[in-house]
Design goal:
The protein folds into four domains: 206 residues, Response regulator (Rossmann fold); 169 residues, 3-Layer(aba) Sandwich (Rossmann fold); 131 residues, 2-Layer Sandwich (Alpha-Beta Plaits), CATH 3.30.70.270; 105 residues, Homeodomain-like (Arc Repressor Mutant, subunit A, Orthogonal Bundle). Helix 1 runs parallel beside helix 7, helix 5 packs parallel to helix 6 and helix 18 packs across helix 19. It is of the alpha/beta class and 708 residues long. 44% of the residues lie in helices and 15% in strands. InterPro entries: Homeodomain-like_sf (IPR009057), HTH_AraC (IPR018060), HTH_AraC-typ_CS (IPR018062), LacI/GalR-like_sensor (IPR046335), Peripla_BP_I (IPR028082).
Amino acid sequence: MRRRIAVITARADASEQRDILYGISEAAFRKDTDVVVYSNIYNHWQDDNLLNYENIIYSLIEPDLFDGVIVTAEAFRDIKIINDTIDKIRAAKIPAIVIDGELDGFKSVYSDDETDLEKMTEHLITVHGFTDIDILTGSRDSAASQKRLNGCKRAFGKHGISFDNIRVYYGNFWNDSGEELARRYLSGEIPRPQAVICTNDFMAFGLCDVLSEAGVDIPSELTVTGYDLTGGDHTAGRIYHYPLLTTYRRNRRKMGRDAVDAILGGSPIQDNSDRFVSGNTCSCGVCRLHLLDELVAEKIDQYHTIMSTVAQFSGRLTTSRTLEEYTGAVSEFFYLLHGADRLFLCLDSAWNSERFNGGEFLCCAIDNEYSEPPIKFSSGETPVPFITEHDSPAIFYVNPVCFQTRLYGYTVLEYNRPASYDFSFRDWNKTVADTLEFLRMKNDIHYLTQCQRQSALYDSLTGFYNLCEFESIVEEAGHNFCIQAVRLSFPDGGEYLFGENHRSDIIAETASAIKRVCTKHEICCRTDDNTFLILFKRENGMFPEKLKISLHNEVYSRHDERQVIITYHSSDNTLVGELRSAVLLNAEHDVGLISERRRLPHYNELADIRNRIISMPNKMPKLSEVSRKMCVSEGHFRLIYRQCFDVSYNRDCINSRVMKACYLLYSTAMSIYATAVSCGYDDEKFFSRQFRQVTGFSPAEYRKKILQ
């Protein structure tokens, strides 16, 4: 199996993180290794539970699934938000690397900031002949500040220039530090030098903005240089400041490559590339071709941002009634995920319930042509079940889909080349989260309006008595009555969650079927959303049989066990509480059995075949046909069918035909021969023989008994 490494970062769309991730994916792909990147979307500054709920995405990381882990420390406002995940990584005892930071038990990888600043300082000394130079760096206690300052010192010493600590000004690596230094120059508080080396571009932007606004001619009156600008092959951001900054690009890609080599083995590749970026804040001037590349890249980014806010995408998702329609709409607008090869929408199996579970997920694979039906998987198995279905290494971005304090699950973007998403993905992700909440609320409203309206005595959906009134009737009924319970269970997942919300429809269909069976003054009750109780006279002993064959043919034949499970329980006494507990216990047992079935290979294919048998018993598919459809031998098909449903394929076909015949004999006046033909039999005698084998009665005897 292909090796796999995890990357833990924040704001993966930020240009500095994209540079690191490019380097990681380039090195991993050379070693035939997949990369799985876990990232939040917003990376909020504030410590607010509502804002930071998205960070639960890091709790989904299972280190045992990976051959190593990389943490990009500088991406996090506060590294403490991933402390629990870091503890899990330490416990797993797998190779772990931290980029630009220190963590106990992790090896550290840094960029060579000292050498970069040494080269930038030498440029001012050797090319421009400056010796009167100030330095603006970060805070005094910052390791990055001191490393970059040391690079400047080395260049000064190499050229015999004395280094004066008074010429060093400390800031915070943000624009306001440069703005403050500019105002001090303008006020005359400190003398203006020939040049200022800013060890961070943001500080250089602030310095140039204030000086230019005040009329200082840069670079003729003052030369300014920066450092650390990112953006891959272009320097995103500097075109928004005047004059265009002279800077030096930090080698974040090399940090990413070195981190992969530290995990997977191999010597770091030397990179002596010249990353000096000329601009107009020194007299070198701008490289025309380089500037054109920046402008083209910026236009592309702006186009992506505009396209990601297209109202049609939000409107199309909002009008979706089901997850099937929803994923189809995402596929239709897949082009908004610029350059991605596939998208995986992994929703918590209880995504439309009150709280995030996180144990099991439903995962749909989506591209620009179609969306696949969901696959159910455990969070401890794999980040996404389709992750091994590719011939070459890929990089996967795992991102939370979060609406306030409701985490629906996550998305996974797959790229089959070193690539990443950009800023526009934040808008895309927000649209998906908002419209999922809208879909959840629509389903809740639909269900509540149809299923939970009750009056003082009756359930308005079914017209049946409510529990309180039913218990009063039972107390007065005496011992000549029995109670039949029917419990509907709706499995999480499958067609119920993915397709139409059938719950209220199934409840209504069940109630209608019960009404049709209750022809002898039986009294019906709907105790809760999914449970029915029917009080019937003891002398009407065939009532449970009538009810089962009716519900089998009118409900179960339309909605298979992936949508609804019907459980029955009868009681000769009239203790309603005990009966409700008993049918609930039986229902839990039935749900457990079917949950075990669903873990078996080929379950969905076999369930489709069985549903066809039950819904159309007069058109039974031949054994050769179904085994050929599943690409297995007839013997193997018989084996897996029995393992799944605990009954042979042939016996299941016979039982389905007989159940249909029972229903027709009870509910219609069709002749025995017509009943046989309707159930797929050519020979009436053969039909009668099979019917007796299953029920113990001939067709005529059965009709007489059930109608009495």
